[in-house]
C-alpha cells in the first residue's frame, strides 16, 4: 500500500506541484480512503521527504560506488555522467520533484534534503579535483564545473523521450564527449 500511495504522490506532485496535490486525490489514485494514508504517512510532507530522500540517497550511493570502484579519473567521469543521466531519465518524475519542490519543504525537513544534495555536489567536486590534481583535467573552478555538469546532465530529463530519435545510451555518449573534451587538457587523448 505504501508503494501505491507513493506512486500516486509522485504522479500528482510532478503533474501539479506539491501544494496543488491534495491528500484526498493521492488516496483516490492509490485506491484507498484519504484517512488510510495516515496509517502509512503522518502527513503529505512525509511523502515529499521520502520521494526526495530516496532519490538523493540513490544518486549519492551510486556515485560513491563509482568513486570507490574506479581509480582512473576518465573512467570515473564517464561512469558518473552515465549514472546521472540514466537515473534522471529512469526516475524522471521523481527527480523533477527533487529539482522543483525544495521550496515546498518545511523548515525542519529542508536541511536534511539540502545536505543530501550538498553531498552529491561534493562527490562530483572530489571526482573533478582528483582529475585536476592528476593533470588529466584542466584546472578550473571545481564548484562551478560541478554545477555545470550536474545541470547539463539533469536537463536531459526535460527533453529526452524514450520513443525519440536517440536512445539513452546514445545521449550518454554525446554528453560524455561534450563534457570530457571540455575538461581534458589539450595534450590528453580520449
UniProtKB/TrEMBL annotation:
Keywords: DNA-binding, Transcription, Transcription regulation. This is Atu genes repressor. It holds the Pfam family TetR_C_24. It comes from Tengunoibacter tsumagoiensis. InterPro entries: Homeodomain-like_sf, HTH-type_TetR-like_transc_reg, HTH_TetR, KstR2_TetR_C, Tet_transcr_reg_TetR-rel_C_sf. Residues 1-59 form the HTH tetR-type domain. PANTHER family: HTH-TYPE TRANSCRIPTIONAL REGULATOR BETI, HTH-TYPE TRANSCRIPTIONAL REGULATOR RUTR. GO terms for molecular function: DNA-binding transcription factor activity; transcription cis-regulatory region binding. SUPFAM superfamilies: Homeodomain-like, Tetracyclin repressor-like, C-terminal domain. Residues 22-41 bind DNA.
Amino acid at each position: 500500500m505504501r508503494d501505491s500511495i507513493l506512486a500516486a504522490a509522485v504522479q500528482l506532485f510532478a503533474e501539479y506541484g506539491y501544494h496543488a496535490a491534495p491528500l484526498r486525490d493521492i488516496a483516490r489514485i492509490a485506491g484507498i480512503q484519504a484517512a488510510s494514508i495516515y496509517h502509512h504517512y503522518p502527513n503529505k510532507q512525509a511523502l515529499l521527504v521520502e520521494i526526495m530522500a530516496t532519490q538523493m540517497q540513490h544518486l549519492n550511493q551510486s556515485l560513491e560506488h563509482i568513486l570507490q570502484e574506479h581509480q582512473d579519473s576518465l573512467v570515473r567521469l564517464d561512469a558518473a555522467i552515465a549514472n546521472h543521466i540514466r537515473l534522471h531519465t529512469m526516475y524522471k518524475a521523481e527527480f523533477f520533484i527533487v529539482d522543483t519542490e525544495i521550496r515546498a519543504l518545511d523548515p525542519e525537513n529542508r536541511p536534511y534534503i539540502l545536505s543530501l544534495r550538498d553531498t552529491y555536489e561534493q562527490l562530483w567536486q572530489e571526482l573533478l579535483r582528483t582529475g585536476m590534481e592528476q593533470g588529466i583535467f584542466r584546472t578550473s573552478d571545481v564548484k562551478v564545473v560541478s554545477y555545470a555538469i550536474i545541470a547539463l546532465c539533469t536537463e536531459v530529463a526535460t527533453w529526452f523521450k524514450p520513443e525519440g530519435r536517440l536512445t539513452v545510451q546514445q545521449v550518454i555518449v554525446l554528453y560524455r564527449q561534450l563534457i570530457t573534451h571540455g575538461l581534458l587538457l589539450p595534450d590528453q587523448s580520449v
